[in-house]
Specification:
The chain contains 5 helices and 9 strands. It is α/β, with parallel strands linked by helices. It has one domain: Alpha-Beta Barrel (TIM Barrel), CATH 3.20.20.70.
Length: about 210
């Protein structure tokens, strides 16, 4: 049984697959506590792999089936995703992506691994498809280039909420949006190995 927080159909809003329709399976639970996290993943429903596959197939009952992409996310999906679930999803014809913090080993067979490493953590992964770092400005993300092998390297600006602003001692930023997008852009311009990733689903008002 898997602890599933929600399953929904939307556009992938960030990273190399940005803009592609996908079903997201959000698993409950995480082994980290990032202060900027705005995702609700504590509630859950117990589901079998058959339940998950059936729920995804219901959401993919659309005329356009060019690629049935499933994104396993969380929380931290690496706490629960296993080979039986991967096999069940592949048997149903799904292209499997996972969004992980990289601190847990993953089963073989996942088609696309997005690793979003966090400061002061030890990685269990060595080779992934893309690295997507939330740029906080508190440390140099170049540290991950010595620990991970990947095809795509993305920096994502951190939008601070009131709680994180208070915790960090920061009371203002360069513009009215209380984000560090200008700082992120400046970093990429001076480190052109990286690409900018923004969350278009938030801009478009999607989940």
């Amino acid at each position: 049984m898997y602890k599933v927080n929600e399953i929904f159909y939307t556009l992938q809003g960030e990273g190399a697959h940005m803009g592609i329709p996908a079903v997201f399976v959000r698993f409950s639970g995480c082994n980290l506590r990032c202060p900027w996290c705005d995702t609700e993943f504590t509630d859950f429903t117990h589901m079998t792999s058959e339940d998950i596959v059936a729920a995804i197939q219901d959401l993919y009952d659309t005329p356009n089936k060019r690629r049935k992409m499933v994104v396993l996310t969380g929380g931290e999906p690496g706490l629960q995703v296993d080979k039986p679930l991967v096999d069940a999803l592949h048997a149903a014809g799904f292209y499997i992506c996972i969004e992980t913090n990289g601190t847990r080993p993953l089963p073989d067979g996942i088609d696309w691994i997005t690793c979003s490493p966090k400061q002061d953590t030890t990685l269990a992964l060595k080779k992934v498809n893309e690295v997507k770092v939330v740029f906080t400005g508190t440390y140099d993300p170049e540290v991950w280039r010595g620990q991970l092998e990947a095809e795509h390297w993305l920096l994502q600006p951190l939008r601070y909420n009131g709680e994180w602003l208070m915790q960090s001692g920061i009371d203002e930023w360069e513009d009215d949006r209380n984000d560090n997008l200008p700082e992120t852009v400046r970093y990429i311009l001076s480190h052109p190995f990286w690409r900018l990733s923004v969350q278009i689903h938030k801009i478009a008002g999607l989940r």
